[in-house]
Specification:
Distance between the termini: 6 Å
Structural class: alpha/beta
CATH class of the largest domain: Alpha Beta
Strand content: 15-25%
Number of domains: 2
Length: 451
């Protein structure tokens, strides 16, 4: 029984892990690395999507593996198409570093996805068809936490975990040698931490021979591991003290963060204003996530319609799916009249709305990835953002907590699961795992690791 890491080894993201055991072959995730192609491509210098994997193979960006990719993806390559020999691909959650390369694989390979993850994927593909797609697949299977899925002699049990996106899972895989546990991405400091606790408990009971454990935040000691509750408290304080419009940015699929902003807005007797895209996401997830408000009916929510085409806010100016929300329409005119009545979601590519809103004494709460503030690659965008804040004299705040477990929580997770072998993944600091476990194997990209 062996594992081959085609991604996620000594890097954060890009998980693509092949498990082979007595004739059974499954992948755990099939993601794209965060730095995928950045050494060779820039803006409009990019591979032609219609040409398949030809350019990706040229630069070694996608592993050249037979019996895996679709005929269409191989048409201009020197890798001959053969019928796939992969029994299944299991997806832990919807982030691109876990699903991004699914469009490359053969359509006949069975894909197993959590029912919540599938909803997120459908919503994002509807909104951004050119940017987000998992490709065409003839055999998509939905699972829920606790299901037992048999693939030849393997039995795979998905168990929900808490992450910054809904519908995230870890897996327990029963093999001929014993249980292999895969964490996916998870955390312990949000409102649904009991899901991660359930995963840990079941993983421990499986008496695992190996644990594939994420370590995104193993790079440094955290002075304070902010919780989602503390983030909500900070947002509440900023809103309470604000003398004008409060603006905020968070990822559209970070449901916990949406609820933090919603709760803080309601507590301060303000209306939460979201754009049509965020309204569509929340509307489509509320069936799966009962805590979510009904954006069509909730009196604490209004839906922002941008100025478009006719400049009259006419129904014909908007997509068909947007028109369903016109009963809850609010425009810049209404917000500008009474800015203290509102908290408004506003992302980087919607900053143009500030020209119409013309806010005074406004506050902006940045509540998304810390990565925005790190590294030279974000410098240009950061500068533009700062210029907009400066121009409109908007006070800038940060209020965020990570979607990944802290270093101390990872140590505790490993201790409680108690695997015989620990394999660090999704981390740039794999050596740190050796400090708290006696049997650690650090995987190498593309190299088989026997278990």
């Amino acid at each position: 029984m062996n594992l081959t890491f085609y991604g996620g080894a000594n890097e954060i993201g890009g998980n693509k892990i092949l498990l082979q055991d007595k004739g059974a072959k499954i992948y755990l995730d099939f993601g794209e690395s965060f730095d995928f192609g950045e050494d060779f491509f820039y803006e409009y210098l990019a591979p032609r999507t219609a040409n398949g994997l030809e350019v990706y193979f040229e630069f070694g960006l996608v592993p050249k593996i037979p019996k895996l990719y679709s005929k269409d993806m191989l048409k201009l390559t020197n890798l001959k198409y053969e019928k796939p020999d992969i029994d299944a691909i299991f997806i832990s959650h919807s982030h691109s570093d876990h699903v991004g390369h699914l469009p490359f694989v053969d359509e006949e390979i069975p894909i197993f996805i959590g029912h919540g993850t599938h909803k997120v994927i459908e919503a994002y593909h509807k909104l951004y068809p050119q940017l987000f797609s998992i490709g065409e697949h003839n055999n998509i299977n939905l699972f829920k936490s606790g299901d037992k899925i048999k693939i030849k002699h393997l039995v795979i049990e998905p168990i929900h975990v808490e992450h910054s996106v809904p519908g995230a899972y870890g897996f327990i895989v029963q093999t001929s040698k014993g249980a292999i546990v895969y964490t996916g991405d998870l955390r312990m400091h949000g409102p649904m931490s009991e899901m991660t606790m359930e995963f840990i408990e079941k993983a421990n009971k499986s008496n695992p021979i190996a644990l594939l454990c994420e370590g995104t935040r193993m790079s440094h000691e955290t002075e304070h591991n902010f919780t989602e509750k503390e983030v909500e408290e900070r947002i509440d304080k900023i809103i309470k003290e604000s003398k004008g419009l409060v603006l905020g940015y968070f990822s559209m699929v970070n449901i916990d963060r949406f609820m933090s902003f919603y709760n803080a807005a309601v507590k301060n007797k303000r209306i939460l204003v979201i754009d049509t895209r965020l309204a569509y996401v929340i509307d489509n997830l509320k069936e799966k996530i009962k805590v979510l408000p009904d954006v069509r009916k909730d009196k604490n929510i209004r839906i922002y319609f941008r100025l478009s085409k006719s400049c009259t806010f006419s129904e014909k100016d908007y997509n068909i799916w947007e028109r369903e929300y016109m009963d809850k329409m609010i425009t810049y005119k209404e917000i500008a009249k009474n800015p203290k009545n509102y908290v408004m979601h506003l992302g980087f590519y919607r900053l143009i709305e500030l020209v119409y809103l013309r806010p005074k004494n406004a506050d902006f709460i940045y509540s998304s990835s810390e990565h925005f503030y790190e590294g030279e690659e974000n410098e240009e965008q950061r500068k533009v953002w700062e210029n907009w804040m400066s121009h409109f004299k908007i006070k800038f705040h940060k209020a965020h907590c990570s979607g990944h477990a802290s270093k101390q929580d990872i140590i505790e997770i490993v201790r409680k699961i108690n695997p015989k072998l620990l394999i660090p993944i999704h981390t740039q600091n794999a050596e740190e795992f050796k400090k708290f476990h006696s049997n650690v194997k650090i995987p190498e990209k593309g190299v088989e690791l026997n278990v």
